[in-house]
Every structure is written in C-alpha cells, then in structure tokens.
Prior knowledge:
- By secondary structure, the protein is α/β, with parallel strands linked by helices.
- It contains nine helices and 13 strands.
- It starts with a strand and ends in a 16-residue tail after the last strand.
Amino acid sequence: GVRYINQSNGSNIAHALVDAVNKHNERNPDKTVLYLNTGAVDPALTNDKCSFWHFRFDADAAMKMAALTDAIALSPRSKKVYLINQDYAFGQAVAAAAREMLPRKRKDIEIVGDELHPLGKIKDFSPYIAKIKATGADTIITGNWGNDMTLLVKAAREAGFTPDFYTYYAGGLGSPPALGDAGLGHLKQVTQWHANIGNEKVDKHYRAYRDRYKDVKDDYYWTTQYLALEMLAKAMEQAKSTDPAKVAMALEGMKFEGDTGEVMMRADNHQIVQPLYISTYSKVDGKDVKNDIERTGNGFKTDRRVEGKDTVMATTCKMERP
C-alpha cells in the first residue's frame, strides 16, 4: 500500500526505482507511487530518463560540477587535473562533466588522467596516488564517497601529497571521523548546505539536532531530506489530497524558503534549483568555522556561494504525463 518512496544514493538504485515506479503506475493507475529522490544525482534522471513520478531534491552531478569547475578555474594553483571516480553511473557522469566543462573554463588546464575504479572494492589507494603524483597533478576531482573517498585522501597524506581535492562527498556522514586531520586545508566539497554557512536558520537546525541527539555521533547533513518532506507536506496541503498524481502537480514549480534561501522545483524536469556552496575542510576556529562535524573538531569553511539561478542547466527531458 506504499504510495511514496524516499531514497538517497546511489544512482544505480535510482534508475532501477524509476523503471519500477513507471511500470507499476502504468499497470496500477489507481494505486500510483511517487518517488522522492534526495541524493541520487546522475543527470540522466532529470534528462533522458526523466519521469513524471520522480522528483529530485539534490543538485545533479553536472550542476555540482559546474560549481566545482568555476572554483577550479579561479584557482591559480590548478594547472594539471586528475579525474578519479567510481565505475558506475554517478562516477561516470562526474568524469564526463569534468571533461566537458574544464576546457571551456580554463583552456590552459591539462587533464592528466581520467580513471574509473571498482566501486567499494579498493582497500589500498596508495598505487593510485603514486600514479596520480607521477603525472604532476596539482588538483584531483572525485565523486568518490564513503571508504573510496576517505581511503583516497588518507593515502595522499601518507604519501606526503597535498593536491587540492574537489569532491562531492568529503563531508558525507562517517567521512570526517574516518579522515581525522587528513585533507585539512586542501580537501573541498560542493554541497547545498553545511554547518558553517552562518545564518540563523542553519545555526538553528544544526544546534537543534545536536541538542536532541547528544549521544549520537552522526550529524545533521542530509538537508535534502528536510526539503523533500517539507515540500511534500506543502504540496499535500495545496492539493488537499495525498493522491500522488495531484501532489506531483502541486510540487511542479513550487517555491520554498529553505535554510539558505529560496529553492524551486522545476516543472519541466522535476529538478530542484537551490544555492550551492564550495567549502574547505578546516579546523574549528570560532570564526569562519564555528561548528564541527560529527564531533571531530573539524568542519567546513565557505569558499564561495553559487546562487540557485546560476546552477540552472538545459534539459533534454521529454516528460510523459498521466
């Protein structure tokens, strides 16, 4: 009897869910299901594989890469870039976006390596780091998450190698405790939220979570979940119904005041538009980094904010509506 599915990552699972939901709804028009995607970011999900029954509350990999490559283009240090990613839909999308965007923004930047590795199977990244170091790379772009991200950064520290890492998930839950001090000052992430943005709403949510879960080591991170549930409730109120088709119609074009400003759900491809942040892993200093993450004594410091309107990208979505 489930009518709503909420799922985050990864994109391989998201593709399977979209297919399953589409088939289910076609066969059961009186028992339709709506899929709220809060973290699977393969661009195809709101482009060629878009679905009326799918809404994404996180920026896609290409939107995030646009923000990362803007930051790299502005960095005088970045001259040789190495791409290393997990070999599945998301990792492949990250690499493809970097190859397409970097040359347009800085013609002098050289991509000195582009490598895909098995997902979640590498226990020792030191051979990869040795290969990257040998290319003279000063910058690494990676969509790696979990152990594939932390082991990569820790292997670089052990090799005395300190390139700028531009990542999607440096602050992902479990990563800062695993990293310790590895990557401080040169490990960067692109996110829709982090605990040191410095406005009242962000501080309120961060503190409320910490105060309520004092004995829990994880942290407030997946604000895409907050957006999805708040906007779902608002859509149900507007539609005066919990019927997924009516709720979907109400979600299309919806605007909502999030922690970092206004967000908007595109009607043409069901992709949320919101501000993004580039930030650097840093020691808590009481100024730019007041809040640590997962009780590590380390947090993230904002390098730059990208307004939502500047993240909007063209879409190839041709949506079939019920």
